[in-house]
Design goal:
- 42% of the residues lie in helices and 12% in strands.
- The chain contains eight helices and five strands.
- It is of the alpha+beta class and 200 residues long.
- The protein starts with 5 loop residues before the first strand and ends in a 43-residue tail after the last helix.
- Helix 1 crosses helix 2 and helix 4 crosses helix 6.
- The strands form two sheets. It has a three-stranded antiparallel beta sheet with strand order 4-1-5. It has a two-stranded antiparallel sheet with strand order 2-3.
- It has two domains: 70 residues, no CATH class; 76 residues, no CATH class.
Length: 200
């Protein structure tokens, strides 16, 4: 293995991930969804560090299968699921395949499953039930909340920046004699503009 090679590593969790490799004087911080190019040597050192293998398995996705296979840690096939793979599983995969994923996938993949279950959204009630039973995440409630937020956003779009609701001017349904009278000024005033002389 080329220890000097750099590979893409992505934080697929929804939280900040920080790790230290003291022997190499390295401190890394990944924002949620952030991808960095990391030397293989550093990843190997991290995988042998207490808690390092856990971070790699559950939060960080090394986007290079040969490197993962050389590491001194075991990962399940679900480790290699990326966003596209999770979407395909939710849309086209069987319920059993989803259950295996929920049982064996790392934490970061489970978070992707919950995210895309709402974003897509999924409509298969068996898959919705499986996700709730395995993770406690209630897809139906999340979807309801998403709809409520969308309705609030649509309502807010009909308001001005001051928060006052914009309404169309009222129109009469029945014309009265008084309504036919002109509204506003009855004459156009003409004023002479008088300027004040400047003082010397």
């Amino acid at each position: 293995m080329d220890m000097n090679k750099k590979v893409q590593v992505r934080n697929r969790s929804n939280r900040v991930v920080i790790y230290h490799v003291d022997d190499m004087h390295v401190r890394r911080e990944f924002a949620p969804g952030e991808t960095k190019m990391i030397p293989v040597e550093e990843l190997m050192a991290l995988s042998q560090k207490a808690g390092g293998a856990y971070i790699i398995r559950n939060s960080l996705f090394i986007q290079d299968a040969p490197t993962v296979k050389e590491m001194p840690m075991k990962v399940e096939p679900e480790y290699y699921l990326d966003d596209k793979g999770v979407i395909d599983l939710l849309k086209n995969g069987s319920v059993d395949a989803l259950l295996d994923c929920l049982d064996f996938a790392p934490g970061g993949v489970i978070e992707l499953v919950k995210k895309y279950a709402v974003d897509l959204p999924i409509t298969d009630t068996r898959k919705i039930k499986a996700i709730q039973e395995k993770t406690g995440f209630k897809v139906d409630l999340a979807l309801k909340h998403k709809e409520e937020l969308a309705a609030e956003a649509a309502e807010a779009a009909g308001q001005t920046d001051s928060g006052m609701e914009v309404k169309a001017a009222p129109t009469r349904r029945v014309q009265s004699a008084a309504a036919e009278e002109p509204v506003g000024r009855r004459t156009t005033p003409k004023y002479n503009v008088v300027s004040t002389p400047k003082e010397n």
